[in-house]
Amino acid sequence: MAKGKTIQLYLIDGTPKGRIKCSLANWTGVAYKIPRTALEQAKNIEALKQTGVYFLFSTSDETQENIVYIGQAGVRKNGEGILHRLQEHKRNPEKDYWTEAVVFTTSNNIFGPTEISYLENKYTKIATKSKRYIVKNANEPTLGNVTEEKESELEEFIDYTKIVIGALGYSIFEPIINEPTTGTTAQLLDNEPILTLTIKTHTAQKIIAKGKQTSEGFVVLKGSKLKKKISKSASSGTLKNRELAKNHYDENFILLEDILFTSPSAAASFITGSSVNGRKEWKDANGKSINQREAENLPTQFIQLE
Questions:
Q1: How far is CA 78 from CA 50, 52, 103, 214, 282, in A?
Q2: How many distinct helices (H) and strands (E) make up the chain?
Q3: Which of 7, 23, 156, 186 suits 166 as a labelling partner, its CA being 20 to 30 A distant?
Q4: What is the largest CA-CA distance in the chain?
């Protein structure tokens, strides 16, 4: 069971849309969230002259997918570190897509080239695996050689990073669906059961999709089948979702990966290609809809793991 954490957020400009400093109790790390438009105002932040790792965030204009570039910055001969690197990215026309940067360094300036190379490599791998963002790094960063003791320290730093960057509003390291861990005792699996959506086409063929509710919305699971024909009653949102996800299902309209939607209805409409009340149509193994489950206040599902 994860323990509670105390996070300190300092709004440097007095607004949540401006520069933010973030730290955790009993952690030497420190993070800064800096809008691209506020880089000049960040010159007075001494920690940004140090070594560290940074994330450049944006959203694709065409597909609305989240984008991230992960990099590292060492201290230059002129005394400039992370901020100088961010300013170089701002001037680079090939990296003009980003709108915000999140930087990680330490309060005691202990990172050297080996540490930031290790962190950059690990961050890139985790972000790629989670499939939340399109990772713009052209090549996988070098891992570097670290001792067992140093690796343990850096892995702990990464664990804290996940908490902080999530608190800043980026789910870059979080999988859409949390996989259950192995064990011999009953464990909680995301608090919610797997739900099924079944419809019949004009040829009486059943189309079955599986999904589940999460704290962020509703996830349609990999392997679910979509209805090929889109109804005239389909909303503009459904049409847009089908278009954005066209590379995420095969020629048989089978989903190739999990997809997160804002609600059960958005997910059901995406599957059926029509306007559907997902809270009525998504049902558990006993045939109870989401509305029925909530009305009956059904207990949280536990799964016995082998």
A1: 12, 16, 20, 48, 60
A2: 7, 13
A3: 186
A4: 72
What are the domain boundaries of the chain? 7-167, 187-304
Cα–Cα distance for residue pair 186/176, rounded to 1 Å: 22
Calpha distance 4→16 (Å, rounded): 23
Q: Are strands 100-106 and 66-73 parallel, antiparallel or unpaired?
A: unpaired
Residue with the two structure tokens 């680079």: 92
Give CA angle at 38 (123, 81), nearest 5°.
Answer: 50
Residues 42 and 83: beta-carbon distance below 8 Å: yes
Per DSSP, the three-state class of 231 is coil
Are 215 and 244 in contact by the 8 Å Cβ rule? The answer is: no
Q: What is the pTM of this model?
A: 0.75
d(Cα 284, Cα 282) in Å, to the nearest integer?
A: 7
Would you give per-residue pLDDT tens digits along the chain (306 residues)? 567 888 999 999 999 999 999 999 889 999 999 999 999 999 999 999 999 999 999 988 777 788 999 999 987 555 578 999 999 999 888 777 899 999 999 998 889 889 999 999 999 999 998 888 989 887 777 777 888 899 999 999 999 999 999 999 999 998 887 654 443 323 334 567 899 998 876 666 677 899 999 888 899 999 999 988 888 888 888 998 888 888 888 999 999 989 999 899 999 999 999 998 999 999 998 999 999 988 887 655 444 433
Asked if 124 and 135 count as a contact pair (C-beta separation under 8 A), the reply is yes
Cα-Cα-Cα-Cα torsion 117, 3, 14, 42, nearest 10 degrees, comes to -10
Beta bridge partners of residue 68, listed in sequence order? 57, 135
Among candidates 2, 1, 5, 34, which has minimal Cα distance to 167? 5
